[in-house]
From TrEMBL:
<protein>
    <recommendedName>
        <fullName>TauD/TfdA-like domain-containing protein</fullName>
    </recommendedName>
</protein>
<dbReference type="InterPro" id="IPR051178">
    <property type="entry name" value="TfdA_dioxygenase"/>
</dbReference>
<keyword id="KW-0479">Metal-binding</keyword>
<dbReference type="GO" id="GO:0046872">
    <property type="term" value="F:metal ion binding"/>
</dbReference>
<keyword id="KW-0223">Dioxygenase</keyword>
<dbReference type="InterPro" id="IPR042098">
    <property type="entry name" value="TauD-like_sf"/>
</dbReference>
<dbReference type="Pfam" id="PF02668">
    <property type="entry name" value="TauD"/>
</dbReference>
<comment type="similarity">
    <text>Belongs to the TfdA dioxygenase family.</text>
</comment>
<dbReference type="GO" id="GO:0051213">
    <property type="term" value="F:dioxygenase activity"/>
</dbReference>
<feature type="domain" description="TauD/TfdA-like">
    <location>
        <begin position="47"/>
        <end position="403"/>
    </location>
</feature>
<dbReference type="InterPro" id="IPR003819">
    <property type="entry name" value="TauD/TfdA-like"/>
</dbReference>
<keyword id="KW-0408">Iron</keyword>
<keyword id="KW-0560">Oxidoreductase</keyword>
Amino acid sequence: MVITATVTEDVPQLRLAATKEKLVLPHAENTTGRAVPIEHGPSSQVDFGAEIYGIDLNNFTDADFKFISDALHVHKMLVFKEQPQMLTPQQQYKLTSSFDPEETTGGFAHGHDPFLTHHNGVDIYGIPKRPAIPVQPQVHILGRGPLPDEHYGFPPGFEVQGIDHEEFHLPPHIPAEEREAGASRFYQWHFDGSLYNIPPPRVGCLLAVRTPKGPDVKVRWEDEEGTYMKMAPGATAMVAGSQALKLLDEETRQIVLNSKIEYAPHAFVWMSQAHSTRLGHLIETEGLEKSLDDLPKWEKSKVCVYPMVWTNPKTGEKSLQVHGQGAYKLYLKSHPDGEETVLEDLKDVRAFMDRIMRPVLKPENIYAHPHKEQDVILWYNRALWHSITEFPKSYGPRVMHQCNVAASDHPTG
């Protein structure tokens, strides 16, 4: 079976309410972990990422976690290598939620999971194309294709339907024969978060269960220059918000340092009938967004208005951290006491978002992580943007376990 739809009615009985138990990590005086910075090559401007050795995530201690937390805030993305066994969903949730002990709801970053379907005696919750794992519902399945047999409570024959740019991007799309030959796109550049009411996660965690096998894909910008980037099939692409900030001219940098974004209420419902740009960073201005009156019930007090620049609490590094597709209104200032200009026309909003996002979205600034089965990646969600990339169906399934948990606080700059 393939999950393709969701129940949208706001009925409490049809929603899965997660809970969070108090987390207690095994104590140890020292860690055996070590971090090795990733070497990105002479043509790359990427300055983040490290591989972690010597820590078994299925048995990590409080000393291990301190090491992990410190390393993550410095390197912003960690790859855990040489894991003795596949990370369990329970331990993945424990790792992710340990970054925010003040968060008490245990909730998924996008809110309570709605009921999707009942199959072979199992209730399946989640959101379309991202079902929750029955034994640990804060961990979701991403990817495309069949799950392994007896996979953490999923019924036999369960299959996940992957994302497809034809369902979201502005036409023309990549022809089928070119896609099967390896032509690909960035699907959506974003940080994880609901953009309404719920604080965005501090970290994201991704376990590779099954990865596609085949030659590198060619991710295309679809621009006049014919820009493209080769990467492993199923790679997760990432850029640093610190690099995005650094690449802006001084005038624009001063504006983003002092400005805020208002995101649309229920932003993903609001944009659900619109088209993404072919680069995956903005929504095309075609008037296809839903009217605010046609959205699910919302409250002005729960609308998210965030600074454009967020600060790393451990290093003090500043990052341009924005979600271009959800941007609804901009409050622009060139210095703290300056006059505020409000942009409300979506065409103007998106023109400014393109101005601040596009400079970093170039091959030399992008790290395309080549997932290896049983490896785990952990990233600082308040400093990096990321995007999934497509790959030919003939390459086989991509099955990933993703965990991101709502934070206890909203970003304040």
